[in-house]
Amino acid sequence: MFYIQKAMKKAKENIDESILLKIMDNMADDNERNLFKQWIEASDMHAVSFEQLKKLHQVNFVDTFHKQKNWESVVRKVNEGTEVPDYIELPAKLQTTINLKMRTFLRYAAMFLIILGVSILIKFIVFDAEQLIVYGKNLKPHEAYILADGSKVYLNGNSEISFSKKFGSKEREITLKGEAFFEVQRNEKIPFRITTYKMTTEVLGTSFNVYSDSSEEVKVSVVSGVVNFYSGKKENGLKLVAGEQGSFNPLLAKIVKDKNYDMNFLAWKTGIFYFKETPLTDAFLMLQKQYSRVFVFEHKQGCIPTLTTTIDNQKLEAVLDELNLLLNTKNFTRNDTIYFKSIIN
User: 127-259: which CATH topology?
Assistant: First the structure.
């Protein structure tokens, strides 16, 4: 029943799945039947989808336990990059009772289910012939995507990673666009490599953040372990340890190593910002990325205050109240821009 409801959610567009269930079970009231009629008449595809879903709903001879186990197997195989068959195995004790016609139906029903169900349950994965693509915008805040080797990837906003369906078995190669934090499972035999524009980040097992932007600048900030950061040949690159940061500037075509003094390099992931006499313009740039708003402080020319506080996963309204208190301001919003104006005592 779980995956039938999920499939209906994909197919319904603008009708509640409970109405479709009630229609199938002949339990809908007049208002629900009218809504269903309008939905069916809105598109020929709605009628086709409903007929398929109704057939799935009628397949009630497979017990819930085995349905759930088989579905979990499908999801696990997709996550691992294993080819998924166009059928779902039934419990052995039931297979002898199914005639040829029903077997044919189950084959097509399973195909239909995989197309709809997998697209919902694994919504952040896009398939092509050889690659899987994971988009950060489709992950929940602080949610990690777990790779086949057990490594975890946290993706920032509009970032994405792509990798082969064979990832983890013979190679661990990933392409990154944007920013991501990696917690890599150690494997001495198979190095973990991330390609970001012209740069390669290589580890055996550690945790680190990789940042890149449209200018093709790349920064690697190491939290634990050892990271190799290079372009072209590995021996021409840098070896970074915990607390260090490697930066590549495409204009200078040069890699630089330094201590990482930025306390907020992981704020996009943790939601925690540390400000200590931070110029307000710098603080606002960080906060507006987190809250998807533009922050503007209306001040006299040459008079830019600093900010000292900690923002710990607070809602926007609480942040605005705190800023107004610290800056002695009041704020107003116009479109997506929040303006702070000084209060004259």
Answer: Jelly Rolls (2.60.120)
